[in-house]
Amino acid sequence: MRVARCFSSLLLLFALALCCCKSSAGAAPAGTKIDFSSLDTHHPPKVSGTLYLPENASSPVPAVVLIHGTMGIDQRGELYRQPLLDAGIGIFEVDFKTGIYKGTLDRPEPDTFLPLVFAALKVLRKLPTVDPARIGIMGFSLGGNIALRTAMESNVKQWMGDDKGFAAFALFYPVCNHFTKDFEKSGSKLTGGPMILFYGTDDSYGEGNAVPELKSLLAEKYNFQLITVEYPGATHAFNLNGPDMNYLDPAAKGMRVHIRWNPDAASDSVTKVVAFLRENLAAK
């Protein structure tokens, strides 16, 4: 009899512990996967994104489309997710790698992704939980370069017609050299939406020089004030938490890339990008 009671007590404790574990797991923000197609009818890949919304939002919320770097979705998205949600900003983290490319050697040109990212913007604008007038874009490396290109008037016109593009732009080391050349060649102007750019001076893609040059060009030629945040000594992907990494990329200086986690720069960038997006996506 005592053995049976002890066994029942153990089962009860196990059940309670299991319930607690389930509750804790449920505390993490649950995302909703959304599949969508490119706006380019001649090359219509199907992709997906995961939508995360702030808890207990009582009205349509502002949101950002979040684009990964060449490596695909990784810890960088997680680093900013909860702080943005806590600030009342939703995130639509898209996957533009799966089924499209494998790495640096077969990665398509950034313009290839424009009909996909503008399709993501259209998806968000149809959702009753998202404010269609307060959608920004945020990206790392390749994603940052794509985001820069969505700020060009000519690209908005091509893929959105008379509809407006993104309301604000948050860019992390977007490989400015490659953007600046294409931007000047196009003759396009920027849409004028507020823009912030984070970079390290030891970036293997040359951001230490390229970002200040782009900032000067935009100020002098277009009277546009690009907000930049420089981290001395920081490398490319300074906000990717993990061991040091080296790899080859034809877009980098000498084709060689070195990245190193910088906790101070990463933490500072979280604070600054949340403040920027909260200010510029606030209800007017």
List keywords for this structure.
single chain, 284 residues, alpha/beta, eight-stranded mixed β-sheet, two-stranded antiparallel sheet, globular
Structure, explained:
There is one protein chain. By secondary structure, the protein is an alpha/beta fold. Helix content is 39%, strand content 21%. It is built from 8 helices and 10 strands. Strand 9 and strand 10 form a beta hairpin. The longest helix has 25 residues, at 2-26.
In short:
The protein has 284 residues and is of the alpha/beta class. The chain has helices at 2-26, 75-86, 114-125, 142-149, 153-160, 176-186, 207-222, 263-280, and strands at residues 32-37, 46-52, 61-67, 90-95, 130-140, 169-172, 195-200, 227-231, 245-248, 256-259. Strand 3 (61-67), helix 2 (75-86) and strand 4 (90-95) form a beta-alpha-beta unit.
Please count the helical segments. Answer: 8
> Could you state the order of secondary-structure elements as H and E?
HEEEHEHEHHEHEHEEEH
- The overall average pLDDT, rounded, is 89
Could you give the count of β-strands? 10
Low-confidence stretches: 1-27
Shape: globular
Strand content: 15-25%
Q: State the major sheet.
A: 8 strands, mixed
What percentage of residues falls in helices of 4 or more residues?
25-40%
Q: Please report the distance between the alpha carbons of the first and last residues.
A: 70 Å
Order of strands side by side in the largest beta sheet? 1-2-4-3-5-6-7-8
Radius of gyration: 21 Å
Structural class: alpha/beta
